[in-house]
Amino acid sequence: PVGSCKVVLAASIAKKLLEEVHDGLKKVDHKPRLHGFLANSDPAAKMYANWTAKTCQENGFDFTLREVAREDLEDVLREANQDPNVDGILVYYPVFDTTRDRTLQWTVSLYKDVEGLSPQLISNMYQNIRFLDPPANQLKSILPCTPLAVIKILEHLQIYNTFLDYGKRLFGRRITVINRSEVVGRPLAALLANDGAEVFSVDVTGVQRFTRGTGLKKQKHEVEDLEGWQLKDCLLNSDVVISGVPGDSYKVPTELIREGAVCINFSSEKNFSPDVKEKASIYVPAIGKVTIVILLRNLLRIVQNLRENQQR
Ligand code: NAD
């Protein structure tokens, strides 16, 4: 028989987060306006755009899809940065699928970037700077959607210990993150370590440890290579396992996962085998529905920051 594993679906977590977003929406003076920029012919991007549109409309946000030629995109983004009728900007990547996409990310104003990919926002995140306006600290920095979705899931599952002070609530937790991409895995490992966790970050090249040092004495996380470490060493030591390996052939070996671990999959494929339920205490099979709510939450935050700025 299957053990006492709780399978937690993203939809149930998303619902709770949406209630908070709806509460926040009541307090802003206009419907937040998101413009999505589609400059590729990838049907998956179009599908995602339609899904964003639907989610926005269902939840009191205004969404406009703008299909533009990719050579025009930089100029169009600069105009949108200046346009008071655009609160948030979302670009569907890849556009060029080369380092040129980086230039597009830099072009989007950090005050309109719902995805949290602007250099200043990324730099704040890695440095554990949580506000855009120190020392006043009224304007919250925007975090990238998928890593923040994982954090909100961990909060929901009470892996974050609210008895502890804010910013230290993962102290004592050991977490493996399998994926170290620049868009998800590395920022996620950094955010978790900044909140106090000891993080084992695994990718095809090896294992790194992200921590704030003994007693969380450091202001931000540090990273070290764990020479000779393998996935099994990480799993043996981890209360939480988060996996995001692309492709359908990869499976986290269930026999190496600790009894009672919390397992979360953010890959679009299933990185855990069905028998994970015999080992894990909690299993979250997918997170996409939470990610999209985070996008709305980021957009709301941008509008709240705008209001805060105007009141000064
Ligand atoms: P990527 O290809 O940029 O990165 C993949 C990462 O996995 C790399 O760090 C790589 O080294 C690591 N990896 C690959 N094979 C591995 C192995 N055998 N062992 C250990 N590490 C391995 O991909 P990405 O953009 O980070 O996306 C990863 C997955 O997450 C995709 O399936 C994507 O669809 C999904 N994703 C989901 C969301 C969401 O909200 N649910 C958002 C973004 C991406």
Verbal overview:
- The protein has 312 residues and is an alpha/beta fold.
- It contains nine helices and eleven strands.
- α2 (43-58) links the parallel β2 and β3 (62-67).
- The N and C termini lie far apart (61 Å).
- The relative contact order is 0.16.
- The mean pLDDT is 95.
- The structure holds nicotinamide-adenine-dinucleotide.
- Residues 146, 149, 178-181, 183-185, 202-204, 244-246, 250, 266-269, 287-288, 291 line the site of nicotinamide-adenine-dinucleotide.
Would you count the extended β strands for me? 11
Which structural category fits the helices and strands? alpha/beta
| Sequence stretches where pLDDT stays below 50 over 5 or more residues | none
Oligomer: single chain
CATH homologous superfamily title of the largest domain: NAD(P)-binding Rossmann-like Domain
Bound molecules: nicotinamide-adenine-dinucleotide
With helices defined by DSSP (H or I, 4 residues minimum), what is the helix count?
9
Order of helices and strands: EHEHEHEHHHEHEEEHEEEH
Number of domains: 2
| Highest CATH level, the class of the largest domain | Alpha Beta
Sequence of strands across the biggest β-sheet: 1-11-10-9-5-6-7-8
Principal-axis shape? globular
What fraction strand? 15-25%
What is the C-alpha radius of gyration, as a whole number of Å? 20 Å
What is the CATH topology classification name of the largest domain? Rossmann fold
Described by strand count, sense and barrel closure, the largest sheet is: 8 strands, mixed
Mean pLDDT score: 95
Distance between the termini: 61 Å
